[in-house]
Amino acid sequence: KWNHVRQIGGLCHFLTHPEPHLFGKQVLRDIYRALLEEMLSEGDAWVTTPSALAAHWETLNSVSTEKDTG
Q1: Which tens digit of pLDDT belongs to each residue from 47-56?
Q2: pLDDT tens string 21-46
Q3: How far apart are CA 55 and CA 57, in angstroms?
Q4: Using an 8 Å Cβ cutoff, are 2 and 45 in contact?
Q5: Which of 39, 37, 41 is nearest to 2 (CA)?
């Protein structure tokens, strides 16, 4: 699924919690680490915070609005 999202220029949002029943198990941490390593391996993934993502879109929107109103 990740490769499809990458191909269409989409966004994946991962919300994780350091709860013992989730990340207390080594196998789950290893799977999550492998996913992150795969996503970052191509050099086209952006790891950021929700507030930085919102600021990015606000900037894009203001630039787009300025172009439209010229």
Answers
A1: 899 899 999 9
A2: 777 888 988 988 998 898 899 888 88
A3: 5
A4: no
A5: 39
